[in-house]
Amino acid sequence: MNLERVIFGFVIILALSFTYTFVMGDIDNPAHHNVWILTIAILVNLIATGLKLGDRSQVGALLLASSLVADVLLITARVVWIIAENETGSGPGTESMVNIVSLSGGALVASTVSIVILIGDTLISRR
Amino acid sequence: MAATSELDRVTMIVLRHIRRPIFVLIIVYAIGITGMALIPGKDADGNVEYMSLFHAFYFFTYTATTTGFGEIPNAFTDTQRLWTIFCLYMGVISWLYTISSIWRLVQNPHFLLALNEHQFANTVKRIEHPFFIICGFGDTGSLLARGLSENWFGAVVLDTDPERIKALALRDYHVKMPGLCADPAIPKHLVDAGVEMDNCKAIVVLTMDEEVNLQISVMARFLNPDLPILCRSTSARHSEHLSTLGKVTVINPFEIFAQLLSMSITAPRLHNLNSSLVRTRGIKLGEPLDVPTGEWILCGYGRMGRWLHKYFVKNGIRPVIIDPDADEVAGATKIIHSHANLNSLREAGIEHCAGIVAGTDHDHDNLSILMSVRALRPGAFTIMRQNTHENQIAFDAANAGLILQSSLTTARRILKHLISPQIQILIDYLRDQGEEVTKQVVDQLKVAIGENQPHLWRSNICASEASAVIEHLNSESTLTLGELIRNPYDLSASLSCMVLAIQRDSLRIMLPTDDETLQLGDEILFCGTEHSESMLLATMNNAYTLDYLISGIDPPRGYVFSWLRAYLVSV
User: Most-buried pick from A8, A84, B289, B530 (CB within 10 A)?
Assistant: First the structure.
């Protein structure tokens, strides 16, 4: 067992789990989605991206790419939240909520791709 | 006049051929459309209305092609209908005329030939992988193509016989093998076949005509001064001429056959190794033929027989020769001027001979010699020469000690040369070293690959084939063969392969040990399983795997963990 692999796997899977936690619930119901969870998801995703930096292998490049996609989408969702909050004064309305959750849904896909690559690499790894 | 390419030619032929039909169509359309636009019609309320030019064109299009949507936009007047009849007939006739001219063009054999050549040249131009050109697709050529395909090499085939090219199209090769029915001695066809391309690795000239072979080789040499040429030649005069061209390997099927035959008698272990390397059917590595030495009888003393005899004498065997046309032969114990039959075989001393070579150039003669030998001396070792590939089944049933088929031995020799010229050099080296060294190599190989079929491949230590190795060597570290072929799943074991030879500039290292260090530009000849080839390829191109193989530790990959490791170590 390799401590690097443990931490690496932990952070990547945590990123996916948090994104999923945020996306869960009705897409247009603001009560089902928590801004704190979204923020934590962004944070964990950024940490995961940082851990992926520096790997020169092909798999490493692909992992980094999918992580960057998740970052971009989640941060866009957070920006939409801020703008919507600014307009209404309270939380985002139904329409903005749909945008935010679907953007996070995209990030969910990117995180899943990350995990699939990670598992595949581990399985065919030569040791 | 500037040289025109095949593409220009085809386009020119088509354009010239359909020029008149196009003119006819344009004129008929123009007349019909103008007429329709000028003739007054009536709308639903009975007012005079002219058809617009666009509508006239629309109407004419569906009328001339006999689609006939009806009278649009309004019902026609009788004048219009009259004109419509004219339009319809003229349109249909001009279309039929056009189609029939195109049809005639398509059926013209010269046009088809040009089109074929054009398509062939285009296909070859798009080949990205290394490929070889094979001129002459007879027995040897088709066996060679099969062998190349099994090693995932592409080839381009030229032959003058259309039937052979048709047969080529029906073969199920792993790789694409475009073929053209054309005379390879004409330089244009060689250019079409890609002789000037960078990824053309060699040209193999195998037609049955020595003169044509020489011509092709000369043309190829002029078109591409660096291209290796392998040329079939059996006459000394042509061979001499060929060798002046430079970078030419002369393929003499008779000599190759004789070498192999003498190898089977004097160096059975090496013969066994060689046969299993080229994957002869029914050969098991490490189980050599038990060929007796003693008195031998050689039936047939033609071109092939001369070479066989030469190699027999070289190995200290003086055979009895049976041939109706044999003249004086230096070094033969006895010559019997007769066809090989019961009487002549008895006269040759079949009762006490060790072995017999049925080497005439007729398969049925060879088979009947075998029958006679069975009757007279069942214990004699029989070596059969098979002339044509089609008789394979009969020879399989004959159950002789050794069957050698000239086209097959030639094709295998060429294939070995194309995979790596080092293979034959190694075989020659082992022959000089004697059977004991061969036995060691065979034992080592058996340990490495077990019961698997041996597979030969070559790797170059260059950036495109071994990026990780290059990176490692450039950082001024050393890499030994033993480290390179270590098994990533189990560091204490090696991959199921062994290194047979290394070519380093002009230096050749035969059977290197595991301590041999690699250098930039090395060309390594491996023998092992197909699986080990892909494993090795992964190792040679993945810096992490290579580092792990050398050091046995898996260092952190990302910046964060590397920094952390360095920090923890310093603390």
Answer: A8
Contact status of A86 with chain B (Cβ, < 8 Å): no
Chain A / chain B CB contacts < 8 angstroms = 42
Please name the residues between 49 and 68 in chain A that touch chain B, using a CB distance below 8 Å. Answer: 50-57, 60
3-state secondary structure B461-527: CCCCCCHHHHHHHHCCCCCEHHHHCEECCEEEEECCEEEEEEEECCEEEECCCCCCECCCCCEEEEE
| Contact status, residue B409 vs residue B253, Cβ threshold 8 Å | yes
Whether chain B has a CB inside 8 Å of the CB on A4: the answer is yes
Which one of A52, A126, A127 would you mutate to disrupt binding with B, by most B Cβ within 10 Å of its Cβ? A126
Close Cβ partners of B22 (under 8 Å, ≥ 6 residues apart): B98
- Which pLDDT does position B379 carry in this prediction? 82
* Cβ contact B557–A55 (<8 Å): yes
Say how many domains are in chain A: 1
Q: What is the pTM of this model?
A: 0.75
Chain B hits for A4, Cβ within 8 Å: 556-558, 561
Question: What per-residue confidence (pLDDT) applies to B263?
Answer: 86
Contact predicate A73/A84, CB 8 Å: no
Using 70 as the pLDDT threshold, list the residues of chain B that sit under it: 1-8, 329-332
Nearest CA among B79, B84, B93, B168 for reference residue B123:
B168
Cα Rg for chain A, rounded, in angstroms? 16
Check if A89 contacts B (Cβ < 8 Å). no
Distance linking the first and last C-alpha atoms of chain A:
11
- pLDDT of A1 reads 66
Question: How far apart, in whole angstroms, are the C-alpha atoms of residue B444 and residue B450?
Answer: 10
For chain B, the residues whose C-beta falls within 8 A of a C-beta of chain A are: 488-489, 535, 538, 542-545, 548, 554, 556-562
Domains of chain B (ranges; CATH) run 6-107 (1.10.287.70), 128-251 (3.40.50.720), 271-419 (3.40.50.720), 452-551 (3.30.70.1450)
Q: What is the pLDDT of residues B77-102, one digit of tens each?
A: 888 889 988 888 999 999 999 999 98
Which residues from chain A sit within 8 angstroms of residue B538, using beta carbons? 126
**Consecutive H or E run containing B309:** helix B303-314
Instruction: Say whether A60 and B557 touch across the interface (CB within 8 A).
Output: yes
